[in-house]
Amino acid sequence: MKSKGALIVNLLFWLGIGTIIGLGILESKIKTNWFDLWVTFGYYGIINVSLFFINSLILIPDVIKKRQRSWLYLFLIIGLIAVTVALKLGIALMYPEIILQHTFRGKIVETSYFNFIVKSFFVSGFFVVISALLKFAADWFSNERIQRNLESQKKDMELQFLKSQLNPHFLFNSLNNIYSLAYQKSDKTADAILKLSEIMRYMIYESNDSWVALSKEVEYVQSYIELQKLRFKDGAAVELKLNGEIDAQRIVPLILISFVENAFKHGVANDPEDPIRINIIANQKILHFSITNKKNKTNKDAMGGVGLNNVERRLQLLYPDRYKLNIVNSATHYTSELMLDI
Questions:
Q1: 298-308: per-residue pLDDT in tens?
Q2: How far apart are CA 131 and CA 111, in angstroms?
Q3: Tell me, what's the pLDDT at 29?
Q4: Pick from 299, 234, 288, 298: which is nearest to 262 by CA?
Q5: pLDDT greater than 50 at residue 1
Q6: Which domains, ranges and CATH numbers included, belong to the chain?
Q7: 206 DSSP 8-state letter
Q8: 31, exposed or middle or buried, with CB in 10 Å at 0-12, 13-18, 19+?
Q9: For residue 203, what is the enclosing H or E element?
């Protein structure tokens, strides 16, 4: 199927040709009958239009693109032009008083057969060149549309894959935490399971949408923090500050959680003097998110892992040129800072 761009280009071309012919008839101011107009424009119109579409619909697709034989195409197109010139010459021989004569400044001027043949050759060549240009333009528009669709499908598939990675990754870590509580026969186990069920409800149902309200995403982060606090006897040391407008601004779901999860996994979460610090500042256009955690020296895992690699790739796909991510990995602390244009 042709793209809209290609159809518009073809339509404009034929409207232009029709306009030129109509203006030519009006400009001549010749009182003529319908038969003369049919001979002058009808026969030639059929020949030129046939030449146009034979070239664009048959010769270029079959000979140039499919068979890739430029020499054969050149031979066929020269032959086709010769046939059209012969047909036009035949019409001129049948109706010389209509075809070869025209009025110029009140005088009848007669065109020689040689000049007529030369003119017919250039007119046929014009339609061949224009049909080729429009055909290549149509193919370009079509290929661009196909390429955009393929890129969009690839992007959607990659995002689904990234999201499918993120959910099991989060679930695996949370179940490990709940297992630790159950193993210790902690009274917090039931609360942890309940909190996890609330989080999973968000992940399964609400996060399936392409965009969610920022307030929902922040509530999800808060629920995750509450779940993590159940791991520790005296609760986790976390400072969460919310400033600005945490409202219905739209954000891609599950963007912030990886940073928070990374802080709990690799950082020290039970030091009241050096807690995990989370700041979220938002207005209707900008979201500023930052999180800092003290490094856990006994944790030998590399900082980042699947979660942060995942979220950075999602940012590249969903917020191209609309985000800034700054990671500071010092000797004692790890800081992630994200700026989003929302």
A1: 765 554 555 67
A2: 28
A3: 46
A4: 299
A5: no
A6: 4-148 (no CATH), 187-341 (3.30.565.10)
A7: G
A8: exposed
A9: helix 189-204
